[in-house]
Amino acid sequence: MHVLQLIPTLDVGGVERGVLDITGALIAQGHQVTVVSGGGSLVATLDRLGARHETLPVHLKSPQAIWRAIPALTQLIRSAKVDVVHARSRVPAWSGYAASRRAGVPFVTTCHGFYSPHPASRVMTWGRTVIVPSEALARYLVDVFDVPLERLRVIPRGVDLQRFVFRGAEAAAAPQAPGRPWRIGLLGRLTALKGHAVAIRALHQLRRQSLPVQLCIIGDAPNASRLRERLERLAASLGVARDLAWCGVRQDVPELLASLDVLIAPSVYPESFGRSLIEAQAVGVPVVASNLGAFPELAREGETGLLVPPNDPTRLAGAVARLLGDGALRERLARQARDRVEARYDLPRMVEETLSVYQDCLTRPRILVWKLGALGDAVLAAPSLRAIRRAFPDSTIHVAAGRAVYDVFAGCPYVNGIVVYDPARKDRAWAAKWRWVHRLKRSAYDLSIDLQNSRWTHAAAWLAGIRTRLGYARRWAKALNQAVPLPEEPLDPVSHQHYLLKAGGIVPDGNALEVWPSEADAAAANQLLCETQIPARTPIVGIHLGGSGRWVTKRWDLDRWAALCDALAADGIQVVVTGHASEQPMGDALLRLTRARPHILIGRTSLMELACLIKRCRVFVTGDSAPLHLAAAVGTPTLALFGPTDPARHLPPASRVRVLYKRVFCSPCYSPRCRTITHACMKRITVEEVAQAVRELLNAPIPRVSAPA
Are 367 and 620 in contact (CB under 8 A)? Predict the structure, then answer.
């Protein structure tokens, strides 16, 4: 793969060394690496590793500079065929995020600090995966930046154990050499946050105890001359200037660490990691660190190091004195720390875990499938979900679903979760819609598959920053980057979805519908039938009177349903009537119109209980409604009465569904109100032919056919 890393500059520092470490390891494994930065002293080292470096002003903080860098980065990503963009700092992350989105490649970030919750810092949480070097920083990002835990990956920085060779626990336990002071090291960038002033004050207390010690300050920083002057004045005022050794920036860090007796890390601000700690532990140098940030993970008190309160020179001096006076303690800490570095902090482990993040981005996309509403359409989505899961067996797949269709997907084995969109909670307001989109953005989806195909779902996918957006080019197609033209020929609803999936490279997995009721749903349906006291061997026919309140043109007349109930009762058939609770008045009216007294179960089932009830029926009769799709999914022989809609486009794929459809001059009109007032398409379906079709289905299942026009 080809990885693009973004960093402000390539000067000496822990982050920069991490870039070099991962670059060298990736190239050694045959991958390509390009690093974009504002330049620096380590560019030559990068070149020797075999990486490509591009100098761009990604270190400049002005919005204009960030904006100007986006086109150049986008062109670089496309021309170099970059697979993954990895941003390691806030300023270049802004242009990197925009460029990766334009180019359609995954964007990964590594957070290196406990950033303040400033809007400028939030880009570091926008990575498809957010890498953090410690558990402490992971908890901080969850608590302060509200980053979902599943998007965080803790990957501690690694040590090249071939460079940082263990000098042996015996060396750590060795007594002070004659005429040589104890050497205490502080390794890190020269900044007030690293606690250099605390270290100098601790040095003063050690000297007051007549301990022969020398504090070696290793590292520097651009524009740090004033800080060094202040520290030198502090040392002079305390009388320890001669006990300070300013080592500056060193390239022989492993050898320098091996010459120390103790390494201290007295930081006064939480550190996200502590490279100097694990490097010292790798060579066998005992460590003392502030009990702050990630340090407790690296220097476990009494096991792999000693911990002291931050900004407390007295406790720091006491811990150092304790180590210098106890050779057995130094030996034990050195041995246990080296063992833990080998087990958790070696460089190959860091490389493999980082590679797994990149590979997840490329082979395990996070997928969002849109199906906000319409119960029947939700049931029809099952074959598509099955195909998507088969194409991406290890991916995270979520469904964006309305509250009304939640039950359809609740038991689906092909999805990992449901993102509920609930208009009843005023999500129609723009502010609430934006909050919902922000929730999607936090999940960092890679692929949007729009089975809803509405203006809102297209726009929401774009606003949520989903990298690949697949859908039909019918409404707001510009919000899609994989817009598929509508098929020229009419297709049944499942084939219509499969046409879209195939355009996105997903192979369909059959047309069979599925629903996933629980055992409790089945038990509730059985109990409901027991209450009807229908004899065990009596055939049961279910009928569904209603459907969408908006589509009254899809309904058969109530007096005809009543006549059908009486006709079936004359044949010894028991009828159960299903429906939504809002359709109870229709059930009451039906009872008044019939002599046979069918069993009215309207409003007494949940959606999945209804599916179980339909499964217990020998035949189910309904109009073009959601229960038609439920019946097809559970395999019950079904008679579908079609009127204003075209069964060629809306009939579910099932061999045990038969259609009665009377085409008239205005069919199909797709109108919720009959424009001719006659409602001829439904009135031409007679009670006699419906009753006869039910009898035929009771006697033997037949394949789906369409009645003559």
Answer: no
Residue 682: its pLDDT value, please?
86
pLDDT attached to residue 423: 62
Instruction: Quickly tell me which residue has 């980053």 as its tokens.
Output: 147
- CA distances to 149, 441, 489, 557 from 311, rounded to whole Å, are 32, 40, 75, 84
User: Is pLDDT of 702 > 50?
Assistant: no
Would you state the pLDDT for residue 264?
97
- Residues 606 and 404: their CA atoms lie apart, in Å, by 11
With CA atoms as reference, report the closest residue to 521 among 604, 633, 620: 604
Does domain 2-154 fall into CATH 3.40.50.2000? Answer: yes
Residues 117 and 145: beta-carbon distance below 8 Å: yes
Q: What is the average per-residue pLDDT within 378-391?
A: 96
Cβ 410 vs Cβ 430: under 8 Å: no
Residue 445 has pLDDT above 70, yes or no: yes
Q: Which two tokens stand for residue 677?
A: 């007032």
Contact 481, 469 (CB under 8 A): yes
Q: Which residues of 379-407 are buried (b: 16+ CB within 10 A; e: fewer)?
A: bbbbbbbbbbbebbeebbbbbbbbebbbb
- Beta strands (DSSP E) in 523-644 are 540-544, 574-578, 599-600, 619-623, 638-642
3-state secondary structure 124-191: HHCCCEEEECCHHHHHHHHHHHCCCHHHEEECCCCECCCCCCCCCHHHHHCCCCCCCCEEEEEECCCC
Please write the tens of the pLDDT for every residue from 111-145. 988 998 888 899 999 999 999 999 999 999 999 99
Average pLDDT, the chain: 91
Q: The tokens of 546 are what?
A: 């209603």
| Side chain identity, residue 414 | Y
465 — phi, psi (to 5°)?
75, 25
- At the top level of CATH, which class does the domain 519-699 belong to? alpha beta
pLDDT tens for each residue of 204-258: 999 999 999 999 999 887 778 899 999 999 999 999 999 999 998 888 999 999 9
pLDDT above 50: residue 705: no
Alpha-carbon dihedral 250, 255, 261, 267, rounded to 10 degrees? 40
Quick count: other Cβ atoms within 10 Å of Cβ 203?
Answer: 26
Q: Where in the chain is the domain with CATH 3.40.50.2000?
A: 2-154, 169-340, 364-503, 519-699
Look at the domain 364-503 and name its fold.
Answer: Rossmann fold (3.40.50)
CATH H-level superfamily of 169-340: Glycogen Phosphorylase B; (3.40.50.2000)
Is omega for the bond preceding 668 within 30 degrees of 0, making it cis? Answer: yes
Structure tokens at 308: 């002291």
DSSP class of 8: S
* Run of H or E including 402: strand 397-402
**Residues 6 or more apart whose Cβ sits within 8 Å of residue 523:** none
Q: Which two tokens stand for residue 633?
A: 């999914």
Residue 653 to residues 379, 389, 398, 650, Cα–Cα distance (Å): 12, 20, 25, 9
* Both tokens assigned to 442: 């936090």
Residues 576-627: tens digit of each pLDDT: 999 989 899 999 999 999 998 899 999 999 999 999 999 999 999 999 889 9
Label residues 582-605 b or e (16+ Cβ within 10 Å = b): ebeebbeebeeebebebbbbbebb
Q: Are 611 and 517 in contact (CB under 8 A)?
A: yes
Q: Which two tokens stand for residue 299?
A: 């220097």
Question: pLDDT grade, residue 428 (50/70/90)?
Answer: low
Q: Cα(546)–Cα(558) distance, rounded to whole angstroms?
A: 9
